[in-house]
Amino acid sequence: xSERRQLPVLALRGSVxxxxxxxxxxVGRAHSLRAVEEALKGDRTVFAVSEREExxxxxxxxxxxxxxxxxxxxxxxxxxxxxxLTPEKRGAAxxxxxxxxxxxxxxxxxxxxxxxxxxxxxxxxxxxEVRERAMDLGKQRGLREDVLTQVVGAVSGPGELADLVATxxxxxxxxxxxxxxxxxxxxxxxxxxxxxxxxxELMTAQQRIxxxxxxxxxxxxxxxxLREQLKAIxxxxxxxxxxxxxxxxxxxxxxxxLPKEAREEAxxxxxxxxxxxxxxxxxxxxxNHLQWMVELPWTNRSEEKLDLPLAExxxxxxxxxxxxxxxxxxxxxxVRELASRQRxxxxxxxxxxxxxxxxxxxxxxxxxxxxxxSIARALGREYVRIALGGARDEADIRGxxxxxxxxxxxxxxxxxxxxGTKNPVFLLDEVDKLxxxxxxxxxxxxxxxLDPAQNSAFTDHYLNVPFDLSEVLFVATANVLHTIPPxxxxxxEVVEFAGYTxxxxxxxxxRYIVPRQLEESGLSTHEPxxxxxxxxxxxxxxxxxxxxGVRQLERQIGAVTRKLARxxxxxxxxxxxxxxxxxxxxxxxxxxxxEQAAEADEAGVATGMYFTPAxxxxxxxxxxxxxxxxRARPESSVEADGWGDVALILTGQLGDVMKESARAALTxxxxxxxxxxxPQQSLGAIEAHIHVPAGAIPKDxxxxxxxxxxxxxxxxxxxxxxxxxxxxxxxxxxxxxLPIGGVKEKVLGAHRAGIRHIVLPRKNQADLADVPAEVRxxxxxxxxxxxxxxxxxxxxxxxxxxxxxxxxxxxxxxxSNGPSPSxxxxx
Length: 827
Known about the structure:
26 strands; single chain; 28 helices; 42% helix; five-stranded mixed barrel
């Protein structure tokens, strides 16, 4: 074996093989498997050499000194080979080479250097000391003495003993490799003895720690015992990872420009972290807290671009219509730009930094959230959105106190960490849907956040130090105002988003939605590309959607494009020019049936207007009057203030406010019967029935007062109501018409239904400025101060018929030869 040999190379990862021991080896890497397979074909001999721990390439990754080993028993498994390797002798690799994917080494056996005099007393003492220390270490590890005696006694010489002990010592690969490369037996024995002594002292210290911990905690639970034991170990040996982490946090805190109060808190927490054990729960809490403080943008700012032409361009690119909203946003940005130019004034700079807090209010799908994103893009700021819908815990805003398990900061601080700057555009979405529970009121917690006089020192419960929010541009959104607490609403400037007209929806569909849906459906690259005709979009808007925004419209357009994509993908013939007829074929019957103006004038039916978050529309109020049991009273016997008992029936799921409006309408009609040309047959003991379709939908509000009165007066007088007139307004018992809200939505709904005359309270005349000019040009508006003004427009200009509506019912309940009218009794 003294000659050079070329042997397959078996690279050992994470271990070192010493001669004289048999060790199990798991082989799974491809090059190692090929080396073993080649050895098995020959004399089962390989050159086993360890890999360096540092990253190297090719043969430089392997040490030059290894062992010439014989492969014993081999077991094959799914993960590779399990084999017993018996190193026989040290060897030195003169050259590494690769042949057909198998690494080979030209190996020369290496002889160890024995002492000149093995009987020298110093060498004998060293040899004996190593044997005794090896026995001591085995005993500390729990091995039986007879087993140790047998194992150590089987060793034939000092070199073999050194290799045996080195095999079982817990050393790094580099340290074991140094022992393998130490050819002088005496030198190798001394090195092994040093490692043995260190290991024995370490295990003795561990035992001492265990004993001290046991005495300290007494009868505590096992979990606490283990924690204290681990803490004592770290105190005894030190913990490099803990020290590195603390040092890293300390360096990061030193680089931050923290306010005085925040820096004092951070230094105090850092001192506590150094004192407590690294694995304790308290250390985890402190580390998390300091990590949050390090990652918050205390001084990082986005460079703001106050460029009004650019902002206007961005708003026009992203949104169609919404002229009032865009004007208000540009005014807001103009104020900030002018204030920023006066940086010499401390007050002006502070006002520019704080600014107003905008609240976008409007129905779903009209672009409230996307406008906020456009503002961020126009200003060059980061954009953060948090959804507050359904939030019922004050900790969502202010965070949890660190005494709670799993505590974390609130959504405001979390959003700032996400943005990475202290001046982002911060969108508070759905503030009208905040809830209240036993965990607190998040709406009240927002008061400090949205108050420019307070938010410069906002304190999150988790951080427990003030954070300046004054440079954050807050934008909130809501669908309605009445659910927002007054104190919170007072801190925001309301910008109302009205619904889109059909013309605006048509343009939005053509410019934005259709291209986006064609791209999402994979049709944007198809040749020829599908196109949507205007009548197809109008059909989708009026017959398949009912909304103020365009969210449902986008879904329906997406449904059409998906059906086209399916046909094209399957190879079927598809009409790529989509018109109204094609829409009906693809989507089926219309889903929405909006109200349309009545076909003819009719007595007892008046057209009103209403609006919901889905938009405005018209409704019909129906009234009918019939006499109860008794005789008709002669005209001469009717008194101005006496008109008998009246039974009022209200149907259609009317709310309390509408019921009160109906009672006021009936009182007004009765007390002004003569001026309203109501015949005596419609007075006395009568039953008035008022119904508002559809009966399954709850309805409420005061603005139906004039409509109910008009329908009731029409039914009692027999005069028809004009089919092309729609009205809205609240009434009083004196007949005054009071202003109402939602004028734009109501007018748009009436216009869509085919109405051409609109009756509004005179005090709502200024609200017509919100109605698009093209809609105003097609309508005629009438403004009323009293119910008389309303009836003059709404009732048809025709003479009262000789036989009022309901005369048949009256005659059927009136006897021809009964007592005189003065003795009538109402039933």
